[in-house]
């Protein structure tokens, strides 16, 4: 499969209290078309910074980020993004919020209306088209945000901890919904998370990052037949393995390697 997204030698630095902080140091990553990648790490490891670079909302200080082989120089409708906060417009209904993403898109209004309705149905908000954001639960608002992120049929969907502010039950439900949507649409997806279980439940590969400076410690390749079930022994073994990597990795010595779990044999 060809790479939908690529990072080559990416470096990003910030100034903090007159000192330089290296958020990302030498990141190399390829994301195949149609792949679901989870980027996992603790706060401060640079995972959201990397996502913003892929979104075109920030620029690297060194190296380059590419979409379909073209250097990313700014935001694009071909790359949809969903943040931890839903960021719905409070003065628009659910239908209008999703439709807002299509204001500058080509095509007749009737076709756009059908697209909006199909997306609302896809994320499970049928019957709430005319609801206002303040009338929605946190989970429902995030569903609407995901629908808006998919409105332009982006080549890539970028998710920056979209379920981080939700309660455990709602988060579990939306994780299952997101997996269902990806299995149906096969949109190339990057999910940033600090939740090990979420990364293992959703990702085909899990990119584990370590902080200060942000580096890729390893890439965990999940077997296609891995049961996405907390109670499963293979799943539990992988969780323990990843937690060990996060706990033991030395950020100064971390280097890229591919880790294939025993369950793949």
UniProtKB/TrEMBL annotation:
Pfam family, one: ABC_tran
InterPro entries, per the entry: AAA+_ATPase, ABC_transporter-like_ATP-bd, ABC_transporter-like_CS, ABC_transporter_ATP-bind, P-loop_NTPase
Gene3D superfamilies per the UniProt record, alphabetical: P-loop containing nucleotide triphosphate hydrolases
Keywords tagged on the record: ATP-binding, Nucleotide-binding, Transport
Cited PROSITE patterns: ABC_TRANSPORTER_1, ABC_TRANSPORTER_2
Top-level taxon: Bacteria
Family classification: Belongs to the ABC transporter superfamily.
Protein name, as recorded: ABC transporter ATP-binding protein
Species name: Dankookia rubra
Lineage, highest ranks first: Bacteria, Pseudomonadati, Pseudomonadota, Alphaproteobacteria, Acetobacterales
């Amino acid at each position: 499969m060809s790479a939908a997204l690529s990072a080559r030698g990416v470096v990003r630095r910030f100034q903090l209290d007159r000192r330089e902080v290296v958020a990302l140091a030498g990141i190399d990553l390829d994301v195949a078309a149609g792949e679901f990648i989870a980027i996992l790490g603790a706060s401060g490891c640079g995972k959201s910074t990397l996502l913003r670079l892929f979104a075109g909302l920030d620029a690297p200080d060194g190296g380059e980020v590419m979409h379909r082989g073209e250097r990313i120089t700014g935001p694009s409708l071909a790359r949809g993004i969903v943040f931890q906060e839903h960021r719905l417009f409070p003065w628009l209904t659910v239908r209008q919020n999703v439709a807002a993403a299509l204001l500058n898109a080509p095509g007749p209004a009737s076709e756009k209306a059908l697209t909006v309705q199909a997306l609302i149905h896809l994320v499970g908000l049928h019957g709430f088209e005319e609801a206002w954001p303040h009338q929605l639960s946190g989970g429902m608002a995030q569903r609407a945000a995901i629908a808006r992120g998919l409105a332009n049929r982006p080549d890539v969907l970028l998710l920056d901890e979209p379920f981080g502010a939700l309660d455990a039950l709602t988060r579990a439900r939306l994780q299952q919904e997101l997996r269902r949507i990806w299995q149906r649409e096969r949109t190339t997806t990057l999910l940033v998370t600090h939740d090990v279980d979420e990364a293992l439940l959703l990702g085909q590969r899990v990119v584990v990052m370590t902080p200060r400076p942000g580096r890729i410690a390893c890439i965990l390749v999940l077997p296609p037949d891995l049961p996405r079930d907390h109670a499963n022994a293979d799943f539990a073994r992988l969780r323990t393995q990843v937690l060990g990597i996060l706990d033991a990795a030395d950020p100064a010595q971390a280097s890229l390697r591919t880790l294939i779990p025993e369950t793949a044999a």
